Amino acid sequence: MRSVFREDHHMFREMARRFIENEIVPHLPEWEHAGIVPKSVWRKAGEVGLLCSTVPEEYGGAGGDFGHSAVMIEELARVNATAIGFTTHSEIVAPYIVAYGSEEQKQRWLPKMVSGEMIGVIAMSEPGIGSDLRSMRTSARVDGDDYVINGQKTFITNGGNADLMVTATKLDPGAKELTLICVEADRQGFSKGKLLEKIGLKGQDTSELFFDEVRVPAANRLGEENKGFSYLTHQLAWERTIIGLRAAASIEALLEDTLAYVRERKVFGKPVFDFQNTRFKLAECKAQATMLRVFVDDCLAKAMRGELSAEVGAMCKLLGSEMQGRVLDELLQLHGGYGFMSEYKISRAWVDARVARIYGGTSEIMKEIISRSL
């Protein structure tokens, strides 16, 4: 029994699971082939209240907490719906606007994000800079009451569908300080590159974004000038815990799938489960999954109380993503040759899980953050 959730969280889970099973799961193969999810799905999710659940009621949201966020993250992970970019939109972009946006910005953008009419992205990564955000080259110069933005972003989740970009820029190209500016997709000079081909996350519309003399009003700046880096890092503990939550839910779901498979699949005249090696492997996976679940739920409880630290968030991501890679590899092995076939969920989940050790800060960066607290 998990004690971190309340009754309203359980009710929200029932609604989320029903929507995902009916509106998402049947279409995942089609979306993974197309490389993008139709915007109509976002609007349907918005209509039933599954987007931006933590946004306050005065801006159209449900005024929920991280527990509601975790429910949606876990339910998507349970079916390996990696094509769906709801989490970036709801748990990263919207909270930036809630935390640092002006009242006018909140009224202008948040209701549309809650309804699914506007899809948000965080435009941070750039070609060649990796985790070194302070070396980014995208610039914004002041021109009267406007900013004029030039630069390029890459690996942008929801990039193909993006309507609003929270864009990290530099006012002084030689400086290290960042400024966040919100850019609407219909601004002149803004364009999207082709969808990037990836080894996993096939249905996720990851793309490059280009800014060529894009003019936006100063009213689109998010928070204060030269405070962008602190804004970005302030949210990172929760963003990294999201990856740990997803990993734990993925391991649990794939473990159940594998148990069903090995009980049904017969080799040498008996179920694969009857071999001691299979039972020992699964026992080890179960023990690891249980240990991760306890830790991840503790991290979630800390986040709900406002007590989640940067190093604990980094631990959650590091342990979750690394364990997900190891355990899914063991579960795939138990499927034999069928584990290598894309029609089996384990194969797709195994490939999709690889990026968890990279995005949100690499495992090496997580170790560096944790080491600073030693």
Automatic annotation (TrEMBL):
Residues 226-374 form the Acyl-CoA dehydrogenase/oxidase C-terminal domain. Residues 7-117 form the Acyl-CoA dehydrogenase/oxidase N-terminal domain. InterPro entries: Acyl-CoA_DH_CS (IPR006089), Acyl-CoA_Oxase/DH_mid-dom (IPR006091), Acyl-CoA_Oxase/DH_mid-dom_sf (IPR046373), AcylCo_DH-like_C (IPR036250), AcylCo_DH/oxidase_C (IPR009075), AcylCoA_DH/ox_N (IPR013786), AcylCoA_DH/ox_N_sf (IPR037069), AcylCoA_DH/oxidase_NM_dom_sf (IPR009100). Its cofactor is FAD. Coiled coil: none annotated. Residues 122-214 form the Acyl-CoA oxidase/dehydrogenase middle domain. It comes from the Bacteria. The keyword Flavoprotein applies. Keywords: FAD, Flavoprotein. The keyword Flavoprotein applies. It holds the Pfam family Acyl-CoA_dh_M. Belongs to the acyl-CoA dehydrogenase family. PANTHER family: ACYL-COA DEHYDROGENASE, ISOVALERYL-COA DEHYDROGENASE, MITOCHONDRIAL-RELATED. This is Acyl-CoA dehydrogenase family protein.
